């Protein structure tokens, strides 16, 4: 099977399975998993009460099966290096998704928009991040170098500190991005496309993971576009965040996730700035954080905010391509 046939298959399997599973899942989740709406959020979000959550289960299954099949094909072709690389990325993403599943189930049990504590989440995520780095070091001897444009900088022991901060930061920032209909999924589609182009240029198997990511996110958008029929929940957002940052590590350029995942960074930074500014001044820097809620309160509708998210990803990615030459 040629590389491009593998990429197309990964995309189609993820897309079709996501649509089929989600269509079957919505009626069940509508009865058993209705999203608790955050009372401190925008008042108009109360109308979303009763919308089912944990819809990320559909693309979790679809993308996972797609990558597992791709790994099997690569093993048959004696491309063990590539098969192991995408398998490690998948396992890391699935592990984070399980944290999300437990968090979502806790919210549903409590019937409020608060699941695991931040400490519990970060503790579990840190364990997964360490295991991910150990696995990559064991199989690929990743080393402690960081690519910065055309230069490589050896950070020594500080590499692992930076790597863990990058992994945890991007996963949780992606989680924060999931706050309005279609935003997290439309940004994930764009991030996946950019990673696909870069992976193809490098001849890297992560193009398969990227194709599967795009397929699953597009399939979910059929149901999550405003007005959403279902939310992905932490089940889906933690999976997408982990898969995206995992791809960056698998192409041996972790820092590349910062411009490609610029929307995630901006959303996360808006929350941090809001907290710091309020502690210093007892005033709010934004009308509400994360930034997408500030934009809502400024009068932008959800579809426009999604479009801004997609365009922001494309602009920062274009700058990245120009700087890379």
Percent of residues in β-strands: under 5%
Helicity, in percent?
over 70%
The rounded distance between the terminal residues' Cα atoms is 31 Å
**If you average the pLDDT, what whole number results?**
91
Structural class: mainly alpha
**Major beta sheet summary:** 2 strands, antiparallel
Helices and strands, in N-to-C order? HHHHEEHHHHHHHH
Task: Provide a descriptive summary of the structure in words.
- Helix content is 73%, strand content 2%.
- With 325 residues, it is mainly α.
- Strands 1-2 form a two-stranded antiparallel sheet.
- A hairpin with a 2-residue loop joins strand 1 (145-148) and strand 2 (151-154).
- Helix 1 packs antiparallel against helix 2, helix 2 (56-76) runs antiparallel to helix 7 (206-224) and helix 6 packs parallel to helix 8 (233-250).
- The protein is globular, with a radius of gyration of 19 Å.
- The two termini are 31 Å apart.
Task: Write a concise synopsis of the structure shown.
This protein is mostly helical.
Write out key terms for the chains shown.
single chain; 325 residues; mainly alpha; two-stranded antiparallel ribbon
Topology of this structure?
Elements: H1 3-32, H2 56-76, H3 80-110, H4 118-140, E1 145-148, E2 151-154, H5 158-177, H6 183-202, H7 206-224, H8 233-250, H9 257-260, H10 262-281, H11 291-297, H12 302-324
Antiparallel strand pairs: 1-2
């Amino acid at each position: 099977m040629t590389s491009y046939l593998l990429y197309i298959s990964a995309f189609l399997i993820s897309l079709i399975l996501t649509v089929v599973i989600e269509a079957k899942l919505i009626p069940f989740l509508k009865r058993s998993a209705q999203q608790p709406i955050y009372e401190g959020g925008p008042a108009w979000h109360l109308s979303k009460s009763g919308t089912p959550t944990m819809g990320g289960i559909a693309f979790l299954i679809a993308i996972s099966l797609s990558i597992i099949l791709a790994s099997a094909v690569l093993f048959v072709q004696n491309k063990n290096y590539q098969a192991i690389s995408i398998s490690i990325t998948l396992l890391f993403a699935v592990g984070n998704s399980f944290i999300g599943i437990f968090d979502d189930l806790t919210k549903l049990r409590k019937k409020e928009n608060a699941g695991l504590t931040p400490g519990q989440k970060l503790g579990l995520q840190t364990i997964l991040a360490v295991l991910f780095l150990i696995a990559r070091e064991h199989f690929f001897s990743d080393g402690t170098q960081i690519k910065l444009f055309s230069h490589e900088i050896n950070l020594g022991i500080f590499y692992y500190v930076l790597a863990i901060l990058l992994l945890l930061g991007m996963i949780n920032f992606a989680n924060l991005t999931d706050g309005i209909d279609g935003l997290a999924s439309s940004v994930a589609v764009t991030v996946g496309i950019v990673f696909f182009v870069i992976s193809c240029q490098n001849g890297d198997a992560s193009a398969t993971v990227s194709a599967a990511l795009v397929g699953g996110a597009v399939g979910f958008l059929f149901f999550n576009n405003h007005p959403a029929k279902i939310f992905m929940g932490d089940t889906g957002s933690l999976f997408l965040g982990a898969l995206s940052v995992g791809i960056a590590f698998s192409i041996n350029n972790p820092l590349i996730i910062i411009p490609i995942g610029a929307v995630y960074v901006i959303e996360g930074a808006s929350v941090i700035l809001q907290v710091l500014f309020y502690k210093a001044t007892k005033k709010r820097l934004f009308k509400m954080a994360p930034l997408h809620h500030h934009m809502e309160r400024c009068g932008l509708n959800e579809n426009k905010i999604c479009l801004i998210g997609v365009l922001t990803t494309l602009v920062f990615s274009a700058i990245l391509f120009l700087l890379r030459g």
